[in-house]
Amino acid sequence: MPSSVKGKSPSSQRNRQTPEMTHLSKADPVMRRLIREVGRFTLSPRSKRSPFESLARAIAYQQLHDKAAESILRRFVALFPRGRFPQPSDLLAIDEQAIRGAGFSRAKVAALRDLAAKTLDGTVPAGAIVRKLDDEAIIERLIAVRGVGRWTVEMLLIFQLGRPDVLPVDDFGVRNGFRITYGKRSMPTPKEVRQYGERWKPYRTAAAWYLWRAADRAKES
Predict the structure, then answer these.
(1) 171 labelled catalytic
(2) What's the helix, strand, coil split of the chain in %, to 5?
(3) N or C end of the chain, less CB within 10 A?
Protein backbone atom coordinates (compact mmCIF):
# COMPACT_ATOMS: atom_id res chain seq x y z
CA MET A 1 0.00 0.00 0.00
CA PRO A 2 1.24 3.54 -0.71
CA SER A 3 2.21 5.59 2.32
CA SER A 4 -0.15 8.27 3.54
CA VAL A 5 0.07 11.81 2.21
CA LYS A 6 0.93 14.52 4.72
CA GLY A 7 -2.27 15.79 6.30
CA LYS A 8 -4.28 12.69 5.41
CA SER A 9 -4.81 9.57 7.47
CA PRO A 10 -3.56 6.21 6.10
CA SER A 11 -7.15 5.02 5.68
CA SER A 12 -8.17 8.06 3.64
CA GLN A 13 -5.12 7.59 1.41
CA ARG A 14 -6.05 3.94 0.84
CA ASN A 15 -9.55 4.96 -0.22
CA ARG A 16 -8.46 7.78 -2.55
CA GLN A 17 -9.60 7.11 -6.10
CA THR A 18 -7.10 6.58 -8.88
CA PRO A 19 -8.05 7.60 -12.43
CA GLU A 20 -8.56 3.91 -13.24
CA MET A 21 -10.93 3.42 -10.31
CA THR A 22 -12.90 6.57 -11.16
CA HIS A 23 -13.36 5.62 -14.82
CA LEU A 24 -14.31 1.99 -14.16
CA SER A 25 -16.75 2.97 -11.42
CA LYS A 26 -18.54 5.42 -13.72
CA ALA A 27 -18.55 3.06 -16.70
CA ASP A 28 -19.75 -0.09 -14.95
CA PRO A 29 -21.84 -0.33 -11.75
CA VAL A 30 -20.88 -3.97 -11.20
CA MET A 31 -17.19 -3.11 -11.42
CA ARG A 32 -17.87 -0.18 -9.07
CA ARG A 33 -19.12 -2.62 -6.44
CA LEU A 34 -16.07 -4.85 -6.89
CA ILE A 35 -13.76 -1.84 -6.54
CA ARG A 36 -15.47 -0.89 -3.28
CA GLU A 37 -14.97 -4.42 -1.98
CA VAL A 38 -11.34 -4.83 -3.07
CA GLY A 39 -10.05 -1.32 -2.49
CA ARG A 40 -7.36 0.73 -4.15
CA PHE A 41 -5.77 -0.27 -7.45
CA THR A 42 -2.16 -1.07 -6.50
CA LEU A 43 -0.53 -2.77 -9.49
CA SER A 44 3.22 -2.00 -9.48
CA PRO A 45 4.96 -3.03 -12.72
CA ARG A 46 8.49 -4.48 -12.54
CA SER A 47 9.85 -1.91 -14.97
CA LYS A 48 13.52 -2.79 -14.39
CA ARG A 49 13.11 -6.35 -15.64
CA SER A 50 14.31 -7.13 -19.14
CA PRO A 51 11.84 -8.44 -21.73
CA PHE A 52 13.83 -11.70 -21.63
CA GLU A 53 13.24 -12.16 -17.90
CA SER A 54 9.58 -11.11 -18.08
CA LEU A 55 8.86 -13.58 -20.88
CA ALA A 56 10.82 -16.38 -19.21
CA ARG A 57 8.81 -15.91 -16.04
CA ALA A 58 5.56 -15.82 -18.02
CA ILE A 59 6.52 -19.09 -19.73
CA ALA A 60 6.93 -20.64 -16.28
CA TYR A 61 3.42 -19.55 -15.34
CA GLN A 62 1.75 -20.95 -18.46
CA GLN A 63 -1.02 -23.40 -17.44
CA LEU A 64 0.19 -23.57 -13.84
CA HIS A 65 -1.07 -22.24 -10.51
CA ASP A 66 0.97 -19.39 -9.04
CA LYS A 67 2.56 -21.41 -6.23
CA ALA A 68 3.74 -24.17 -8.57
CA ALA A 69 5.24 -21.67 -11.02
CA GLU A 70 6.95 -19.74 -8.22
CA SER A 71 8.50 -22.95 -6.88
CA ILE A 72 9.82 -23.89 -10.34
CA LEU A 73 11.27 -20.41 -10.84
CA ARG A 74 13.06 -20.52 -7.47
CA ARG A 75 14.71 -23.82 -8.38
CA PHE A 76 15.54 -22.51 -11.85
CA VAL A 77 17.22 -19.34 -10.59
CA ALA A 78 19.16 -21.37 -8.01
CA LEU A 79 20.89 -23.19 -10.90
CA PHE A 80 22.85 -20.06 -11.78
CA PRO A 81 25.74 -18.26 -10.03
CA ARG A 82 24.75 -16.19 -6.98
CA GLY A 83 21.14 -17.22 -7.48
CA ARG A 84 20.48 -14.39 -9.93
CA PHE A 85 18.13 -14.61 -12.88
CA PRO A 86 20.23 -15.80 -15.85
CA GLN A 87 21.21 -13.87 -18.93
CA PRO A 88 20.27 -15.44 -22.31
CA SER A 89 23.81 -16.75 -22.80
CA ASP A 90 23.73 -18.37 -19.34
CA LEU A 91 20.51 -20.19 -20.18
CA LEU A 92 21.88 -21.51 -23.47
CA ALA A 93 25.04 -22.74 -21.76
CA ILE A 94 23.36 -24.79 -19.05
CA ASP A 95 22.43 -28.45 -19.54
CA GLU A 96 18.84 -29.04 -20.63
CA GLN A 97 18.38 -31.76 -18.00
CA ALA A 98 19.25 -29.29 -15.25
CA ILE A 99 16.42 -27.02 -16.42
CA ARG A 100 14.10 -30.04 -16.61
CA GLY A 101 15.14 -30.90 -13.06
CA ALA A 102 13.85 -27.51 -11.89
CA GLY A 103 10.40 -28.55 -13.08
CA PHE A 104 10.09 -27.24 -16.62
CA SER A 105 8.49 -29.49 -19.23
CA ARG A 106 10.38 -30.31 -22.43
CA ALA A 107 8.16 -27.90 -24.35
CA LYS A 108 8.90 -25.09 -21.91
CA VAL A 109 12.65 -25.82 -22.00
CA ALA A 110 12.50 -25.52 -25.80
CA ALA A 111 10.58 -22.26 -25.44
CA LEU A 112 13.12 -20.86 -22.96
CA ARG A 113 16.04 -21.76 -25.22
CA ASP A 114 14.37 -20.20 -28.25
CA LEU A 115 13.62 -17.10 -26.17
CA ALA A 116 17.29 -16.85 -25.21
CA ALA A 117 18.45 -17.31 -28.82
CA LYS A 118 15.96 -14.75 -30.16
CA THR A 119 17.01 -12.28 -27.47
CA LEU A 120 20.62 -12.60 -28.55
CA ASP A 121 19.76 -12.15 -32.24
CA GLY A 122 17.59 -9.10 -31.53
CA THR A 123 14.16 -10.56 -32.30
CA VAL A 124 13.30 -9.92 -28.65
CA PRO A 125 14.31 -6.28 -28.19
CA ALA A 126 15.95 -4.68 -25.19
CA GLY A 127 13.79 -2.81 -22.70
CA ALA A 128 14.62 0.64 -24.06
CA ILE A 129 13.43 -0.42 -27.50
CA VAL A 130 10.33 -2.34 -26.49
CA ARG A 131 9.05 0.60 -24.43
CA LYS A 132 8.83 2.69 -27.63
CA LEU A 133 6.56 0.19 -29.42
CA ASP A 134 2.78 0.08 -29.17
CA ASP A 135 1.03 -2.94 -27.67
CA GLU A 136 0.12 -4.71 -30.90
CA ALA A 137 3.59 -4.18 -32.39
CA ILE A 138 5.13 -5.78 -29.29
CA ILE A 139 2.73 -8.73 -29.49
CA GLU A 140 3.39 -9.26 -33.20
CA ARG A 141 7.15 -9.19 -32.67
CA LEU A 142 7.35 -11.44 -29.62
CA ILE A 143 4.99 -14.21 -30.70
CA ALA A 144 7.78 -15.20 -33.10
CA VAL A 145 9.35 -16.91 -30.07
CA ARG A 146 8.52 -20.60 -29.71
CA GLY A 147 5.87 -21.19 -27.07
CA VAL A 148 5.06 -17.49 -26.70
CA GLY A 149 1.52 -16.56 -27.59
CA ARG A 150 -0.58 -13.47 -27.07
CA TRP A 151 -1.28 -14.24 -23.38
CA THR A 152 2.43 -14.50 -22.57
CA VAL A 153 3.17 -11.14 -24.18
CA GLU A 154 0.18 -9.57 -22.43
CA MET A 155 1.75 -10.53 -19.10
CA LEU A 156 4.85 -8.56 -20.14
CA LEU A 157 2.71 -5.61 -21.20
CA ILE A 158 0.98 -5.57 -17.81
CA PHE A 159 3.62 -6.58 -15.32
CA GLN A 160 6.78 -5.09 -16.85
CA LEU A 161 5.68 -2.23 -19.09
CA GLY A 162 2.62 -1.17 -17.09
CA ARG A 163 0.50 -0.63 -20.19
CA PRO A 164 -2.92 0.65 -19.05
CA ASP A 165 -5.31 -0.90 -21.58
CA VAL A 166 -4.54 -4.63 -21.76
CA LEU A 167 -7.32 -7.20 -21.27
CA PRO A 168 -5.99 -10.79 -21.35
CA VAL A 169 -9.25 -12.49 -22.26
CA ASP A 170 -7.63 -15.93 -22.56
CA ASP A 171 -6.49 -15.81 -18.94
CA PHE A 172 -8.38 -18.27 -16.75
CA GLY A 173 -8.26 -16.00 -13.69
CA VAL A 174 -9.71 -13.04 -15.61
CA ARG A 175 -12.52 -15.14 -17.04
CA ASN A 176 -13.22 -16.80 -13.70
CA GLY A 177 -13.23 -13.42 -11.95
CA PHE A 178 -15.69 -12.19 -14.57
CA ARG A 179 -17.89 -15.25 -13.98
CA ILE A 180 -17.91 -14.63 -10.23
CA THR A 181 -18.35 -10.86 -10.36
CA TYR A 182 -21.11 -10.86 -12.97
CA GLY A 183 -22.95 -13.92 -11.64
CA LYS A 184 -22.48 -16.12 -14.71
CA ARG A 185 -23.55 -19.76 -14.45
CA SER A 186 -20.83 -20.94 -16.81
CA MET A 187 -17.34 -19.75 -17.73
CA PRO A 188 -17.57 -16.84 -20.18
CA THR A 189 -15.82 -17.12 -23.52
CA PRO A 190 -12.89 -14.85 -24.36
CA LYS A 191 -15.13 -13.13 -26.94
CA GLU A 192 -17.77 -12.40 -24.30
CA VAL A 193 -15.23 -10.84 -21.94
CA ARG A 194 -13.64 -8.85 -24.78
CA GLN A 195 -16.97 -7.44 -25.92
CA TYR A 196 -18.12 -6.55 -22.41
CA GLY A 197 -14.72 -5.02 -21.67
CA GLU A 198 -15.10 -2.36 -24.35
CA ARG A 199 -16.73 -0.17 -21.68
CA TRP A 200 -13.58 -0.39 -19.54
CA LYS A 201 -11.31 1.31 -22.10
CA PRO A 202 -8.78 2.92 -21.69
CA TYR A 203 -8.16 1.17 -18.35
CA ARG A 204 -8.75 -2.49 -19.14
CA THR A 205 -5.55 -3.48 -17.30
CA ALA A 206 -7.07 -2.24 -14.05
CA ALA A 207 -10.30 -4.10 -14.82
CA ALA A 208 -8.29 -7.31 -15.32
CA TRP A 209 -6.48 -6.67 -12.02
CA TYR A 210 -9.80 -6.37 -10.19
CA LEU A 211 -11.11 -9.54 -11.84
CA TRP A 212 -7.97 -11.37 -10.66
CA ARG A 213 -8.66 -10.11 -7.15
CA ALA A 214 -12.26 -11.39 -7.40
CA ALA A 215 -10.99 -14.85 -8.36
CA ASP A 216 -8.46 -14.79 -5.50
CA ARG A 217 -11.10 -13.78 -2.97
CA ALA A 218 -13.30 -16.68 -4.08
CA LYS A 219 -10.44 -19.13 -3.42
CA GLU A 220 -9.97 -17.74 0.09
CA SER A 221 -13.63 -17.87 1.09
Answers:
(1) yes
(2) 65, 0, 35
(3) C
